[in-house]
Write a structure and sequence with these properties.
Layout (H helix, E strand, L loop, with lengths): L1 H22 L11 E2 L16 E2 L16 E2 L15 E2 L17 E2 L18 E2 L16 E2 L17 E2 L16 E2 L25 E2 L16 E2 L25 E2 L28 E2 L16 E2 L16 E2 L16 E2 L15
Parallel strand pairs: 1-2, 2-3, 3-4, 4-5, 5-6, 6-7, 7-8, 8-9, 9-10, 10-11, 11-12, 12-13, 13-14, 14-15, 15-16
Length: 354
């Protein structure tokens, strides 16, 4: 009996000693250790103050990746880049020249934030996808989400984004700057190929919702605070970078799918033409409606499907327009009455005089 008690006492003492030993272990012993891959961190003061991870062939350059506490992939941050990074940077990103991905706290995908430019993705704390933000000053202070192949331009698209930007979107200078809303896929181009607009963007200061394949054209959908559907608010860019065609700019209402698209004008393609279909709309526009020059401009009423498809049709409307109605030049302009189905389809029909 005495021997059994002695064995029990000895066992308890050994367990207590083991627990004490674990508790007394320094915190740094179990913390993540810095690591450097092959061919990385070469250059004066490169990786100085490193506490994070660097992949292969990365951080090659003067002061590259100083004070990195995050995770940097392969073939990234070559040049004077990625200082003070505490986030995650993928492969083949943040390269060339200087200042790219400085103070990154967020997530940057593969092939992003570089491509021969400077100061891209600085102070990013959001999420940037693959092959995005490849232009000078692109995506600074991003706090939102940017998809793949987005935010390319001559200069600085997606500045201060705090919203959601889809794939293949926001391609021209100033596109989607200060966005706090939602932008779908393949939207907010300054121009559609084969024309390329380097200097005039779309969807600046968007606070609302923009669907897919929408808002192409100079200044299209700028200051939108409403809801824009798919394949809407697209206008032709006729003379590259000179004249605005601001479809759905300052929209506060609802535009359904396939609406507010200004068509190409007949005749001289270089005509000075402000094609602001559905600009300053604060009402409701149905599907496949308001597709022409200044159609439904400043609409504050309710327009049903397949209506107001003509020049200046339903501009300044405050009433209710039924389906398949007001499809003629200046039809229902300044209308304040209720118009039923298949009505007012002649030149200046149901147009209220000044």
């Amino acid at each position: 009996m005495l021997i059994s008690r002695s064995i029990l006492f000895l066992t308890v003492c050994l367990l207590a000693a083991a627990v004490y030993g674990l508790a007394a272990e320094p915190p740094a012993a179990s913390a993540k250790q810095p690591s450097v891959g092959e061919g990385s961190c070469t250059g004066e003061r490169a990786c100085e103050g490193l506490t994070g991870r660097v992949g292969d062939n990365s951080c090659v350059g003067v002061q590259a990746c100083t004070n990195n506490a995050g995770d940097i992939g392969d073939n990234s941050c070559n040049g004077e880049n990625c200082a003070e990074n505490s986030g995650q940077i993928g492969d083949n990103s943040c390269n060339m020249y200087s200042g790219n991905c400085t103070a990154n706290q967020g997530s940057i995908g593969n092939g992003s934030c570089g491509a021969g430019v400077v100061d891209t993705c600085t102070e990013n704390s959001g999420e940037i996808g693959d092959n995005s933000c490849g232009s000078l000053f692109a995506c600074p202070r991003n706090q939102g989400r940017i998809g793949d192949f987005s935010c390319f331009a001559h200069l600085g698209p997606c500045t201060g984004n705090r919203g959601h930007i889809g794939d293949y979107s926001c391609s021209a200078m100033g596109s989607c700057d200060l966005n706090t809303g939602s932008v779908g896929n393949n939207s907010c181009y300054g121009a559609r190929p084969p024309l390329v607009s380097k200097y005039v963007g779309a969807c600046g200061n968007n606070k609302g919702s923009i669907g897919d394949d929408s808002c192409s054209g100079h200044f299209a959908c700028n200051d939108n605070a409403g809801i824009l559907g798919d394949q809407s608010c697209n206008v032709p860019v006729l003379v590259y970078d000179f004249y605005p065609q601001a479809a759905c700019a300052q929209n506060f209402g609802v535009v359904s799918n396939g609406s507010c698209n200004a068509l190409l004008p007949a005749g001289d393609p270089f005509v000075v033409d402000y094609r602001e279909s559905c600009g300053t709309n604060s009402g409701s526009v149905g599907k496949n409606s308001c597709n022409d020059y200044i159609a439904c401009y400043s609409n504050a009423g309710e327009i049903a499907n397949n209506s107001c498809n003509a020049e200046l049709a339903c501009a300044y409307n405050t009433g209710l327009v039924g389906s398949k109605s007001c499809n003629a030049v200046e039809a229902c302009q300044r209308n304040d009455a209720n118009i039923s189905h298949k009505q007012c389809n002649d030149f200046q029909a149901c147009m209220r005089s000044d």
